[in-house]
Amino acid sequence: MSTTLQSRKKLSILGSTGSIGTQTLDIVSAFPDKFIIEGLSAGKNITRFKEQLLKFNPKIAVIADKEDATEVSNFIKKHRLRSNLLIGEPGLLSLAAHPQDLLVVAIVGTTSLKPTVEAIKHGTHIGLACKEVFVAAGDIVTKHAKKHNVTILPIDSEHAALKQCLAGVNEDMSTVSKLILTASGGPFWNRDPKSFASITLDEALKHPNWSMGQKITIDSATLMNKGLEVIEAHHFFSLPYNQIDVIIHPKSIIHALVEFSDGTMLSQMGLPDMRFPIQYALTYPEKLANPWPKTNLASLGAIEFFEPNLKTFPLLQLAYDTGQLGGTYPAVLNAANEAVVAAFLNKKLAFVDIPKAVQTVVESTTHISHPTLDDIIALDTEIKEKIHHDFH
């Protein structure tokens, strides 16, 4: 039976032209009777954004820069679209406050913080694809979500996997002894550490399993991506850091495991395809048949696990340490890493120097125990500007 217009889930996307945003819209297109797009926001990819506006005709369209306003406004008028065009942060906040069922947060950086909290205050559930929200401001965001009875759903293969494993115990965390995040290990997990000094940018950008943006690919190579996911898992599932583990699983087929108090484990498996966790967030708690490729067990061969080497990949340990310290420590870690990785991508420092540079910033920054969102955003900007200046 097809769903009526009134019962279609009202959905908006912050960052609709990026990888997660475009795949989210692919899923919306695959289930046209399930969703209606209320709002879309974009940064610089105006060509793709116009295509999306034409196809989905949202009530609200938000662009990052006013320089693009005339072009997008003329396009909306030419095609007689219903979209109300808004600009910048005020536009994002208006879109976040709009009545809707789910807001997919897929813009990178601390730009995502205030719109996410605004949506939560209006009772909108969140599909979270942006690490900064929980890494930089997890305590603040979870406090608001609890107050407004809002569910934050992970758009991330590992945390979506954990949530599906925990469904079997109705997310009763008293039955859980451990959450285990799997890491592909990136391209260097079994490389001789003595050769790290010779790692090139091209080598670091060659991820063995996933096709991702440059920054997250480098984070995977340093294992920082897994460290950030540990901090996220702490906030998603309210579990202390000593009950969250990381294991190297090079094939990226098992995305996470839960160990229960009786010693048994549940794991979630699937191909390394972001459409699965995106669909899970969009259709939660339903599971709908889809056209994506499925896992062929016989073709997988051996499933192997290895301990991560924290001496070779010190950023993973640093993520645990900053997470436990709390306050602005995780936000500083995140900002420092983002800026240092940008410097590496611009060939301003060597791969082997990334962890040292990040740790130096974390240790030299004055921290705040109970920051506001404005404190976090200001600190993020300050750290990134300083690192940019130091490496240019």
Describe the structure.
The protein has 392 residues and is α/β, with parallel strands linked by helices. Helices cover 44% and strands 15% of the residues. It is built from 15 helices and eleven strands. A seven-stranded parallel β-sheet has the order 4-3-2-1-5-6-7, sandwiched between helices. A four-stranded mixed β-sheet has the order 9-8-10-11, with helices on one face. Helix 3 links the parallel strand 3 and strand 4. Helix 13 runs parallel beside helix 15. It is globular and about 60 Å long. The model has no long low-confidence stretch (mean pLDDT 95).
Please summarize what this structure is.
The chain is of the alpha/beta class. The chain is 44% helix and 15% strand.
